[in-house]
Q: What sequence folds into this?
């Protein structure tokens, strides 16, 4: 694989890494208090492959995935959907319930916010038990607030993940 081709795919590579990390539940990039692998390696295409290997990803499969036009199209579609949902909002974390923005009030603690989210989900489950509510969270791996609310989000997923 030549470096020029990887360089052209760099934005998609970063999105794919974040997608893989998020979907795989790998927390290495969300706990960057002491060391940020992406900053340390200056986000160069070749070094991103080193980061992927360091978190246990199969190198040849990773390279195949990040150069896949099919995967790039899917990532681009997901990004466009996210951009459309977020609109002018740039705060993280941001939550959507059934595609409707669910804001945290300034006066709410994180626990109160998650509890209000649970109340909303319980209401939806009661009203339409045949429909599974959809909750989407937008977050930033470098956001301290996102990291601090993460244990509550994890607990929420454990409680509501199959509903």
A:
């Amino acid at each position: 694989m030549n470096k020029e081709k990887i360089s052209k795919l760099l934005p998609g590579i970063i999105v794919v890494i974040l997608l893989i990390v998020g979907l795989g539940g790998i927390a290495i990039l969300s706990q960057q208090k002491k060391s940020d692998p992406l900053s340390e390696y200056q986000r160069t295409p070749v070094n991103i492959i080193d980061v992927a290997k360091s978190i246990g990803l199969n190198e040849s499969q990773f390279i195949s995935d990040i150069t896949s036009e099919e995967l790039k199209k899917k990532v681009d579609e997901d990004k466009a959907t996210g951009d459309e949902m977020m609109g002018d909002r740039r705060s993280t974390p941001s939550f959507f319930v059934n595609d409707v923005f669910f804001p945290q009030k300034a006066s709410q603690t994180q626990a109160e916010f998650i509890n209000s989210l649970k109340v909303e989900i319980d209401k939806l489950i009661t009203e339409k038990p045949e429909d599974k509510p959809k909750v989407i969270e937008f977050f930033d791996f470098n956001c301290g607030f996102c990291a601090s609310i993460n244990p509550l989000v994890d607990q929420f997923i454990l409680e509501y993940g199959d509903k």
